[in-house]
Batch of 3 targets.
Target 1
Amino acid sequence: KAGVTQTPRYLIKTRGQQVTLSCSPISGHRSVSWYQQTPGQGLQFLFEYFSETQRNKGNFPGRFSGRQFSNSRSEMNVSTLELGDSALYLCASSLDRGGYTGELFFGEGSRLTVL
Amino acid sequence: KQEVTQIPAALSVPEGENLVLNCSFTDSAIYNLQWFRQDPGKGLTSLLLIQSSQREQTSGRLNASLDKSSGRSTLYIAASQPGDSATYLCAVSGGSSNTGKLIFGQGTTLQVKP
């Protein structure tokens, strides 16, 4: 069974640009969460999607947004990039049974560098 | 607000030692606790998941315990090997929520010397 797939793995952008990251969950998983990892702040929750609806949201500015498609694939977008957005962005999927989210499985991440 | 602390931040041991990593959390009303491993530049690998109603979980040389009332979990690694060198992260479900929102500790970086 294929794991969580994130694309692209690495990307470099300049300040003011926008970026879109993609995540394909494990087959059958309907919950997708996004996290940002930086050396200073560690791992921080961005948002979670389930059945194309945002179920939970972390404390990030509105420049960070996401969506989920009917096949459970998810994308996140960051607009007007700032230097501080440089980070490893991780996507996780889980099997949701009747509202219960079990074990989370993570992808390899997308490493974003903002110059 | 839930906060997760991991002690120690770094640990270096000789191969073959048994070791314990600690994780503490401030809000005992968690839904579950999960231990992960992260290799440099890589994503997270799930090691063990403990539901709030459970006291421990075991997988191979790993054993994780959970004491909700005291807000603590430990990850026990038996007979450590150089391949165990990585950062170990503990995460709890956000408060009593059963969603995919996890609160992470800062991790313990483990080095096992041959």
Target 2
Amino acid sequence: ETGVTQTPRHLVMGMTNKKSLKCEQHLGHNAMYWYKQSAKKPLELMFVYNFKEQTENNSVPSRFSPECPNSSHLFLHLHTLQPEDSALYLCASSQDPRGTGELFFGEGSRLTVL
Amino acid sequence: AQKITQTQPGMFVQEKEAVTLDCTYDTSDQSYGLFWYKQPSSGEMIFLIYQGSYDEQNATEGRYSLNFQKARKSANLVISASQLGDSAMYFCAMTQRRSQGNLIFGKGTKLSVKP
């Protein structure tokens, strides 16, 4: 069982759809992250949760809505997205945001918005 | 503002040879961390190596070593004895000032290992 699991791996949605990305970590970590990876651009941090509390929102549009019900699960709810939101969405976890900062990533959810 | 620069969009290396991937960074902080990650075609980001700004010795992890030159603000990754499985995207990253543990990434270098 991998440390950080993301589902679905691939998702195609229309601009009016509502969908959710799920992330689960089996590492006992306390911090979880959502990153966006667009083509030919650096990874962009979206959200950070530490002990289930959101500690960072990197000016992300409200059509992306995160949810962290516990330290092991993280969701990204998607609503009325735009084609430019098509990207690889990576979830990560770490023991503590104030540690060395090593992040453990999932394999990502490849999102295509039509 | 903090920034990571990777100037090599793509690199080729012959199998069993060594290769250096360049990374320069910009920060006004005295304390920071530098990382290298590997991203194969599967998409997962795999942690390779870490260097703290106060570490006096260059970090090494198996075939990976980090050539840390603080005065030049460079943190190049050296892969020795390249293997076909090393073909992937490689990202340099550093901790952000605002909240340690959150990383900012460079644009990456695509490494292709030739048999």
Target 3
Amino acid sequence: IAGITQAPTSQILAAGRRMTLRCTQDMRHNAMYWYRQDLGLGLRLIHYSNTAGTTGKGEVPDGYSVSRANTDDFPLTLASAVPSQTSVYFCASRQGYTGELFFGEGSRLTVL
Amino acid sequence: EDQVTQSPEALRLQEGESSSLNCSYTVSGLRGLFWYRQDPGKGPEFLFTLYSAGEEKEKERLKATLTKKESFLHITAPKPEDSATYLCAVPNFGNEKLTFGTGTRLTIIP
């Protein structure tokens, strides 16, 4: 089934540890996004990539990094996790400039 | 800075009781407004795109409308399966990314 695959589904992490959230899409979409979703704050954009080889900062990029080596993969790395990064992380993609983002099922991250 | 505000935060309706959700926005040149549905534990799912004031889109019991300052998601005779969080979003000026509202959590009681 075509779509966005995120891994892991859920993770508990000690503060200070490094963590990479994986995101793969098989729709050949150019643009990909990482959002975090927190109660009362909604979805906030962390980083995005309009095409392979390019990335940009979103609303809340500090403490996160991304890479886009190819069209399909867009990993999000927390270099040194902090408790405030406890959240649900969603990866998404879209083709062109339509408003239709396709979202993954999310990765629930808890930093202790 | 683009801003999107949704109201109410939560809405409980009896099955069959029609109502509307509101999404007001402040953007420098509207390039579309988008509605999504999100079920618990899932990622948002696209519903509608509206591009100009006066435009309407329908899907089953949902109808989205757009004015120059806000959008409404009207739900007619809702069923329990319509229970979800409904999100609206607008693209930034360069259309590179979407800014989302915080959503309305809709509960339909049988």
